[in-house]
Amino acid sequence: MTLIVDTVITGILTGGIYALMASGLTLIFGVMDIINVGQGALVILGAYLSYFLQQKFHIDLFAGLLITMPVMFLLGLLLEWAFIRPIKRDRPTLSILVTFAIALIIEGILGIAFTNNVVQLQAWYVTASFQVGEFYIAYIYVFGFGLSVILLAGLYWLLYRTKFGYSLQATMQDRTAAQLIGIDVERVSMITFGIGVALAAAGGMVYGATYAFNPGSLYDLISRLLVIIILGGMGSLRGALIASLGMLVIEDVTSVIWSPIWATTVFFILLIIVMIVRPQGLFGRLEGRKQ
Amino acid sequence: MTKRIGLAVVLLASIIFPRVFPNPAVMTIAIFTLLYATATVAWNIFSGYTGYIALGHAAFFGIGSYALAIMCVNWRIPGGNIPFVLVPVAGLIAAIFSIPIGWISLRVRKHTFVVITIAIFFIMQPMAFNLRSITQGSIGISLPIPHWSNVSFHLPFYYYALAMLILAQIVSWWIRNSKYGLGLLAIRDDEDRALGLGVNTGPTKLIAFVISAFFVGMVGALHAYFQGSIYPAFAFDPLFDIAIALMGFLGGLGTLSGPILGALILEPTQRYFTIQFSANGYYLIIYGAQKVLFRLWISIG
Fold first, then answer.
1. Residues of A in contact with B292 (CB under 8 A)
2. What is the three-class DSSP state of A72?
3. Predicted confidence (pLDDT) per residue in B33-78, tens digit
4. From the candidate CATH numbers 1.10.3470, 1.10.10, 3.40.50, 1.10.260, the one assigned to the domain spanning A2-277
5. Domain boundaries, chain A
6. Are B201 and B194 a contacting pair, CB within 8 Å?
7. pTM of the predicted model as reported, rounded to 2 decimal places
């Protein structure tokens, strides 16, 4: 029984990290109507940036985020400007092809720069753990969860308390109408993409500290992230948060009471059940009937 | 009339092609091109005509590969002509798998559909790794090796792939010119209005999905037999999804000859780059850069 409690707690804590990555993905979809398949690659890129800073300059992982997140934010702006904005027609599909190409390029570059050997971020809080009741939890899980709570709270504040957030919500609801009332939709899209990528950097750091990774880990990540945002309802931030927590808890419990091999299959089964019962996802709006 | 002559010339050229270029390297590229062209034509039957962009067809490619490999191993089939007979069976198995997958994923509209097809594909790949008793996991499965002499080794594969392409193209042409095809095009243009006008949209979409899965499964099976061995990572290859979608887009979505054209342009260049740069990681970068370039080209013209 304590084992289950332990697993549920770890599941919630790792779910918080996935929430960070998935919120960027679902936000980008909601605002820009594009699916950023490159999110997994960007998460791994973020992890490698933290790795690089730590190995070369001995910068602490969390302090390093002050460097990696702005860098990744700028990278996001650049990617949006260079590759996403020129797409005029068939946006959802062509954006997938383009972001997939970006993912491949990132995978290739990382493979050359860091080789394909599996690495893991190291710090005292990765190895040290503390006791809760009868079991031990590594500090990194708690720190990572705290980080994602802070960042997501910041994101909510940005979305619901600032002028930029209002324009972002307006763009989400109706792009054309937002344009008509004078919102610079292109600028909102660009910044949203940047935020999504910066969140990937933060998620990547914690991911890299909790799991061993190599450039190929992006496929594993993106499949989970996609299932999470479908389950939560595409474009719904709240849905993404709840789905991440739920999925990771279920996955962890499955791997403990059954076998780790089957944990990913549970994702599949849940996806099927949700698709049958509630095709628009848990918190998704029904898609417009007009397209 | 000119169109018919043109068609006859193309057909004749593709039939005598192996006689003119018997070089194994050229033949290998030609066979891959034919396979990808078939897959793109099949993909186009569903995605091009209905406007539902499926990015998970590599799942059917993988199912087809594994179906053939498992049949060959379990029934101890020697290399030769029998695996060729089993290729359509493998396609059929892929088609059977596609019925529940299509039924589930087609419950949602276009954008979410794209993501669900990707997600389903990404879940099939780990299953190929994990279902060790069936797929032998990451060890992979070796298929029987045909005992033909080196000179004519590629010929049966070439003509089989060509026949598959022609068959797929005939089906595509037939659908395009039938009442059923009009239903598919109506779904692409306006699904709700199509529904209102009496097109039974659900089954219509599903049938196209299954037809395209059947051909892609056959392509996967022939590909596996040609390669001689399969591994989860190569049988369920995300690059395959992106490649056929890009070929479809490049040639023109929903057109008849477009997919073949797209495959003819893209596949040989990809093979060339892979051969040239596969020793290091550069081919991934080039692969990606090439896709970005082609995408820019698409959005311009």
1. 83, 98, 101-102, 105
2. helix
3. 888 888 888 988 888 888 888 888 888 999 999 988 888 888 877 7
4. 1.10.3470
5. 2-277
6. yes
7. 0.81
